[in-house]
Amino acid sequence: EAQVTQNPRYLITVTGKKLTVTCSQNMNHEYMSWYRQDPGLGLRQIYYSMNVEVTDKGDVPEGYKVSRKEKRNFPLILESPSPNQTSLYFCASRTLAGGIETQYFGPGTRLLVL
Amino acid sequence: GESVGLHLPTLSVQEGDNSIINCAYSNSASDYFIWYKQESGKGPQFIIDIRSNMDKRQGQRVTVLLNKTVKHLSLQIAATQPGDSAVYFCAENMGTSYDKVIFGPGTSLSVIP
Hints:
The structure holds 2 protein chains of 2 kinds. Chain A is mostly beta strands. Helix content of chain A is 0%, strand content 50%. Chain A is built from no helices and 11 strands. Chain A has strands at residues 4-7, 10-13, 19-25, 31-38, 42-51, 54-57, 65-66, 76-78, 87-94, 104-105, 109-113. In chain A, the strands form 2 sheets. In chain A, strands 2, 4, 5, 6, 9, 10 and 11 form a 7-stranded mixed β-sheet that branches. Chain A has a 4-stranded antiparallel β-sheet with strand order 1-3-8-7, with no helix packed on it. Chain B is mainly beta. Chain B has no helices and 11 strands. Chain B has strands at 4-5, 10-14, 19-25, 32-38, 45-51, 56-58, 62-67, 72-77, 86-93, 101-103, 107-112. In chain B, strands 2, 4, 5, 9, 10 and 11 form a 6-stranded mixed β-sheet that branches. Chains A and B meet through strand 5 and strand 10 of A and strand 5, strand 9 and strand 10 of B.
């Protein structure tokens, strides 16, 4: 089954404690992306990657890092989480040959930073 | 700034009635629009799209209307069913970037059995 998986699905942490949210896709997609979703603001893009070792900032990259060492994985790293990073996070992927409408979204990771 | 917004944050409809979800966009350069459905605990799912050279597009039970004059987009769901209960997002793409998609804040649709 074609899917994007994220782990963990729920996470409560404290300010300053480094954390990583993993994202994996089994569709051999070149393009992967991270979004955060906040009430009243919709989804905003954090980082994206067009292929292995190719990453770039989205609209709200501050406080986040990503890496793309393998095609299937695109982890989101919060080196020093702060309460304003409390949010719902979505990973997405698609093939570059496909349009935006072909993007698959993961199930989401709900993060609470105390 | 440029943004995509929804007129109604919540909408309740009776099962079997038609639903209309509205969206306003401010970027006249946007040439591609998408509607997403997000069910509780899941990621957004593509429903239907429309390009700026069209004013109407129909899918299965869904129709998207685009009015470029007033920069307005709507999603019509015919014979709304309980399974249609979800949050619906409109999104726009300006065409200058393959990936630059701006999402609206979402409208929550509740279907009353």
